[in-house]
Amino acid sequence: MTHAKLDIVIVGAGPAGLAAARSAAQSGAAVALVDDNPRAGGQIWRGGPQHSAQPQAKELWDQLQQMANVQWYMQSRVLAQAGAMQLLLESPQQTFKLGYRKLILATGARERLLPFTGWTLPGVTGAGGLQALVKGAYPVLGKRIVVAGSGPLLLAVAATLQQHGAQVLHILEQSSWRKLAGFALQLTRTPAKLRQAWQLRSQLTGVPYHADSYVLQAQGEGQLRAVQMMVAGKILSVECDYLACGYGLLPNTELAQALGCSIADGAVRVDAQQRTSMQDVYCAGEGSGVGGVDLALAEGHIAGLHAAGSGAAERGWLAQRRIQQAFSRRLESAFSLRPELRRLCAPETLVCRCEDVAYGALQEHASWRSAKLHTRCGMGPCQGRVCGGATDFLFGWQPDSVRLPISPARVSSLIALANAAAAENPCSE
């Protein structure tokens, strides 16, 4: 097993991680970027920042490529802590350790998926998930698609699908027109966001956009055939090939929790320097609170500067963080989920898809721990990443622990993990 020691290890090569790497590397630190995807960029710059239409993405990428003190560990996933100031990682070729003086977590976020009758049918996907597939050349030419859920991501997803030849039939936004109007008026505080929203909506001219609207059920035998939906108080049904649903984003906090970092309101708790509650561990981007690419970039630069010990962050990044945090709060308020979405499950509707646990079985329990012990909810391959967000919304349950390894791993990697644990605690055998 190989072992490398660096000044700063950054987990996650999305906007926050790339920004942190640039700031830290400019200070002369030896930096490693770790990501489980084949290319950097995260979900927002999928395919690589060098190919993004956003100038800031290409600029960031070009600068990093010229820095000899930045090492890249792509297609590498963190499995666990492997001792003091060490992480155990797995790549397609090997299991290895990375040591660090400072650690920056830029682990991003994932979609919140909510269960309803028929949501497990083939053809029903996450909104961002389908967008990622399409960006990776998945064919949707001529396909009839309904996009539903909540948040500005729905417009971006619909625009991507349309650009690749799909027929977007409807966009269903569960938030109300009143909330959306208030949010739109507030966009004048962030002109760049206003321009982006206007551009997206312009691309979708002719596509019906419905507020106060949401999916009631997906219909079909063995394959999605139609969607029954509530549109401004009326029940409608439409035939389609795909239903892309996404109800906002949830921070990925599993690694932070495994390291002992404090979590508050579902996100990693950080201070003004992006430091977590654990010494020498920082967090930037969606992991410390969902707020979009501009907030992630600001937090990444601030974390990188402080982790490298180069002094106070530039005022520009501090100001951008402050502005984008305010935008994030407005976003959360405008797209808060309506209570009707909690009543879409029938008793037989699966909530935990990995372990086939139905809504009716979960209703018998008062906590995540009780449901997990008695039904195996959250114990499948996704380790609660899907059903955890759903049960949080449905029942108010919060997972109280993280099971290692953090990601599915090879048997040889599990042996390495066991050996690392034994070396750390030799008296435990």
Characterise the protein shown here.
By secondary structure, this protein is an alpha/beta fold. Helices cover 33% and strands 24% of the residues. It is built from 13 helices and 21 strands. The strands form six sheets. Strands 1, 2, 3, 4, 5, 6 and 19 form a seven-stranded mixed beta sheet that branches. Strands 8-15-9-10-11 form a five-stranded parallel beta sheet. Strand 4 and strand 5 form a beta hairpin. Helix 1 runs parallel beside helix 8. The chain is globular, with a radius of gyration of 22 Å. The model has no long low-confidence stretch (mean pLDDT 93).
Layout of helices and strands:
Blueprint (H helix, E strand, L loop, with lengths): L2 E9 L3 H12 L4 E5 L19 H11 L4 E5 L2 E5 L4 E5 L4 E11 L3 E3 L12 E3 H9 L8 E7 L2 H11 L3 E7 L3 H10 L4 H13 L5 E2 L2 E7 L6 E6 L2 E6 L2 E6 L1 E3 L2 H6 L3 E2 L2 E2 L12 E3 L9 H15 L7 H20 L15 E3 L4 E2 H4 L5 H8 L11 H9 L15 H14 L5
Main attributes of the structure:
429 residues, 33% helix, 7-stranded mixed beta sheet, 5-stranded parallel beta sheet
Tell me the major beta sheet: 7 strands, mixed
Give the overall shape: globular
Contiguous helical run count: 13
Estimate percent helicity: 25-40%
How would you classify the helix and strand content by structural class? Answer: alpha/beta
Please state roughly what percent of the residues sit in beta strands, choosing from under 5%, 5-15%, 15-25%, 25-35%, 35-45% or over 45%: 15-25%
What does the radius of gyration come to? 22 Å
Low-confidence stretches: none
Span between N and C termini? 22 Å
Multimeric state: single chain
Overall pLDDT confidence: 93
Give the total of beta strands: 21
